[in-house]
């Protein structure tokens, strides 16, 4: 089989799949044919741009990106050119007769918006890191006379290392656009993120307007929702103008204070960027990036891309009318950030794009998608092996458009990419599972990650020195013949992927009294049970952190710290931790590590008020967390769990429990227990008195139930679990000559003793409204079942505690 033909070429760039789409532009994945470097190629239709009078805006976007050369801004590529040994610098902005092409940095980490949608609000340290990068880049833009004017999470991308990349300068303004009054006068941006003064239409300062948008973004990162939101636009504008918002209770005081100062409706008193840079909450862990400033930029050549002169045009090759061919290299590269970790994620997430593979013919896949989309109100437009699904009903952000493209991975294997082209992302999340639901019934349907995983498994288990298995070509699913050279190249790629994301050092956390201290089992999230040290409140936690760089590598860092954290994690809000205890020790100042280094640490008399708890919907845990902060690459983090038990002395007051079950003229039973508070190894002692029994009782059981409540309001989740069930009797204690018509025949004074040992059961202490997040309560339940299987139920709460051990 021959190599797949190039689908399209623009100048020196080979053009591939579409990775983004807007009203006037498409963004395609492309590769420099000379260097092999991947890029994002933004393609604009000249006729549409001129028709809608967008030429000036496009020119301004190009000019802005040429001015901004910052590590946290999506880069406009520069193309070096040597003529007679003289160096020239050309920007990769090209034009043909019908198109404008802008060559941009290819960012692989997705949008910050998707991260919030899929994982909810962030921890403060994570949100602070993104906000620090955002403020730094906005400050830089302002210093270059550029105001973005459309800052929002959708325009903030993430690179492979999780660093922020600001994009979409289409609505930006340059300082030259400021009028005589020193203000900008164009109302633009996304309403929820727009400053009040922009809405007033009386002119505004681009600096303070951008800063307001940054404040809204910070709120969204920390809260997981918008501070200003209303389905009625006029009501939304009123809320923004009055800065009518409330910070959620889980925010720290420092974060609340900073957000309130940024979201000040008066631009004259709003906090400034220099003031933010010295704010205590903002400064924590802040290290501004160090990068090389480039020389002044010439903006005169931007006009060239709009000219019709042939000398300014690049050649375009027409795309073929068949499914785009994709080889194994491209299949691997479609995993975000070349991170094979994504392939092992068991949950299929529908973000702004999703992919699946099928061995069905391309036409059958198209037919199934069309069949599923039309009943949902989508108009279907087909061209070659591409589809556009347009929802005729307008949503919050206009009509939802979904773009679909089919790629050929092998003659019998296709990959289908589905992405949001236009409209509301939340609506895309709503509709796309239903649209793709029909394709799940296609033969051999699989999410694409499984085929890449199969490729990795086959290659990793085969030595390049051994003959290639005859069936390998078919198992790889490559469009090109799997020659020995291709096989070796793919094997090298996978070896690189296996080790490229490993940290450059190992981190160990060692407790000083680790061997002498009692170890207890702790069940991890993955189901495994590990042995960890046991502590109690007010103890000293002492030990050392050992960092050992990989041989031959150095670790550049911005400081090393260790934190002792007490955290609550609610499973319906996964990934967000609520810290009720937080202590920090700085271990090292910024520098470099070349060899093994040991850092001692001590946390004295630590107050740990709650016991460790692993429940159905909530987890309360204590960890030691070591963080090695780094610039431009992800931080190195190591966690060490430990368990906390808190002990209680015998209560001075422990009242008995009395309960009654009665049905008039039929049943009267009393229960009495010696006390209401029990330690974990205690024995429940009591009696059941039958005062009146005129119904036949089939059986009677005593139960211990645990009730776990998490959340509040509409987000309250209650899980009830029966931990123990003790059968008290089978049949009621009545005489053989029992006569239902004679009340005098009912037995009186009969009783049954109860002794229930708690030690065999997995109990925890009672938790009462822990940080307004969750409660765990225990109940004694008595259940009676009569001949007709009617159940009589009585419940009484008891308190469970961990008894202070005797010396």
From TrEMBL:
Highest taxon listed in the record's lineage: Eukaryota
Known EC number: 2.7.11.1
Binding site for ATP: 42
Cleavable signal peptide: none
Keyword Transport: yes
Any one of the GO BP annotations: signal transduction
Cofactor (UniProt): Mn(2+)
Catalytic reactions on record: L-threonyl-[protein] + ATP = O-phospho-L-threonyl-[protein] + ADP + H(+); L-seryl-[protein] + ATP = O-phospho-L-seryl-[protein] + ADP + H(+)
Domain NAF residue range list: 321-345
Residue stretches making up the Protein kinase domain: 13-282
Alphabetic keyword roster: ATP-binding, Kinase, Manganese, Nucleotide-binding, Protein transport, Serine/threonine-protein kinase, Transferase, Transport
Gene3D superfamilies membership: 2.60.40.640, Kinase associated domain 1, KA1 (3.30.310.80), Phosphorylase Kinase, domain 1 (3.30.200.20), Transferase(Phosphotransferase) domain 1 (1.10.510.10)
Cellular component aspect of the GO annotation: retromer complex
Single annotated GO MF: ATP binding
Family: Belongs to the protein kinase superfamily. CAMK Ser/Thr protein kinase family. SNF1 subfamily. Belongs to the VPS26 family.
UniProt-recorded name of the protein: non-specific serine/threonine protein kinase
Protein's organism: Salix dunnii
């Amino acid at each position: 089989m021959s190599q797949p033909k190039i689908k399209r070429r623009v100048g020196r760039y080979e053009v591939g799949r579409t990775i983004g789409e807007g009203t006037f532009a498409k963004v395609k994945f492309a590769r420099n044919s000379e260097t092999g470097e991947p890029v994002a190629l933004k393609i604009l239709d000249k006729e549409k741009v001129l028709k809608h009078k967008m030429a000036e805006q496009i020119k301004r976007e190009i000019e802005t990106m040429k001015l901004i050369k910052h590590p946290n801004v999506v880069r406009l590529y520069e193309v070096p050119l040597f003529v007679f040994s003289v160096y020239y610098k050309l920007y990769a902005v090209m034009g043909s007769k019908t198109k404008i092409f802008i060559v941009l940095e290819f960012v692989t980490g997705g949008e910050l918006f998707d991260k919030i949608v899929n994982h909810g609000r962030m921890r403060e340290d994570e949100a602070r890191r993104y906000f620090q990068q955002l403020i730094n880049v906005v400050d830089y833009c302002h210093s270059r006379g550029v105001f973005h004017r459309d800052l929002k999470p959708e325009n903030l991308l993430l690179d492979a290392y999780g660093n922020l990349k600001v994009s979409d300068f289409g609505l930006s303004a340059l300082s030259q656009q400021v009028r005589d009054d020193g203000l900008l006068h164009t109302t633009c941006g996304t309403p929820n993120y727009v400053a009040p003064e922009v809405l007033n239409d009386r002119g505004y300062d681009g600096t303070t307007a951008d800063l307001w948008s940054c404040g809204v973004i910070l709120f969204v990162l920390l809260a997981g929702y918008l501070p200003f939101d209303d389905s009625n636009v006029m009501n939304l504008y009123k809320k923004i103008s009055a800065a009518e918002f409330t910070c959620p209770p889980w925010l720290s005081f420092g974060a609340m204070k900073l957000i309130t100062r940024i979201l000040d409706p008066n631009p004259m008193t709003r906090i400034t960027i220099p003031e933010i840079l010295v704010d205590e909450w903002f400064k924590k862990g802040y290290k501004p990036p160090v990068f090389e400033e480039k020389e002044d930029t010439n903006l005169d050549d931007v006009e060239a891309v709009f000219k019709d002169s042939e000398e300014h045009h690049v050649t375009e090759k027409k795309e073929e009318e068949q499914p785009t061919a994709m080889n194994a290299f491209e299949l691997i590269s479609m995993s975000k950030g070349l991170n094979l970790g994504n392939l092992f994620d068991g949950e299929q997430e529908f973000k702004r794009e999703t992919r699946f593979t099928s061995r069905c013919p391309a036409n059958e896949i198209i037919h199934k998608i069309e069949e599923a989309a039309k009943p949902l109100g989508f108009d279907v437009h087909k061209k070659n092996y591409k589809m556009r699904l347009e929802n005729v009903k307008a949503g919050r952000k206009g009509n939802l458009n979904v773009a679909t493209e089919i790629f050929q991975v092998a003659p019998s294997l296709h990959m289908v990419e589905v992405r949001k082209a236009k409209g509301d992302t939340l609506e895309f999340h709503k509709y796309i599972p239903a649209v793709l639901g029909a394709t799940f019934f296609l033969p051999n349907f699989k999410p694409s990650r499984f085929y890449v995983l199969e490729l990795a498994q086959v290659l990793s288990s085969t030595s390049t020195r051994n003959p290639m298995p005859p069936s390998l070509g078919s198992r790889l699913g490559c469009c090109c013949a799997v020659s020995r050279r291709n096989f070796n190249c793919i094997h090298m790629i996978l070896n690189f992927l296996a080790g490229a994301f490993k940290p450059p050092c190992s981190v160990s956390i060692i407790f000083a009294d680790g061997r002498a201290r009692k170890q207890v089992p702790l069940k991890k999230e993955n189901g495994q049970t590990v042995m960890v040290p046991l502590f109690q409140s007010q103890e000293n936690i002492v030990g050392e952190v050992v960092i050992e760089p990989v041989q031959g590598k150095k670790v550049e860092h911005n400081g090393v710290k260790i934190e002792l954290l007490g955290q609550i994690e609610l499973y319906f809000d996964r990934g967000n931790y609520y810290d009720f205890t937080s202590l920090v020790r700085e271990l090292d100042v910024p520098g470099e590590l070349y060899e093994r280094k040991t850092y001692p640490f001590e946390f004295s008399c630590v107050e740990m008020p709650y016991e460790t708890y692993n429940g159905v919907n909530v987890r309360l845990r204590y960890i030691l967390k070591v963080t090695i902060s780094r610039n431009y690459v992800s931080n190195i983090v190591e966690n060490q769990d430990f368990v906390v038990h808190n002990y209680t002395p015998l209560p001075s007051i422990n009242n008995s429990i009395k309960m009654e079950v009665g049905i008039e003229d039929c049943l009267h039973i009393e229960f009495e227990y010696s006390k209401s508070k029990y330690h974990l190894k205690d024995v429940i002692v009591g009696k059941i008195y039958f005062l009146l029994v005129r119904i036949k009782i089939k059986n009677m059981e005593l139960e211990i139930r645990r009730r776990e409540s998490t959340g509040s309001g509409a987000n309250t989740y209650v899980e009830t679990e029966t931990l123990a069930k003790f059968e008290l009797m089978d049949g009621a204690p009545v005489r053989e000559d029992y006569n239902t018509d004679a009340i005098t025949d009912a037995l009186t004074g009969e009783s049954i003793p109860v002794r229930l040992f708690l030690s065999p059961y997995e109990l925890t202490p009672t938790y009462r409204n822990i940080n307004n997040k969750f409660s765990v309560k225990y109940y004694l339940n008595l259940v009676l079942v009569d001949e007709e299987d009617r159940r009589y139920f009585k419940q009484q709460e008891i308190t469970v505690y961990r008894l202070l051990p005797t010396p």
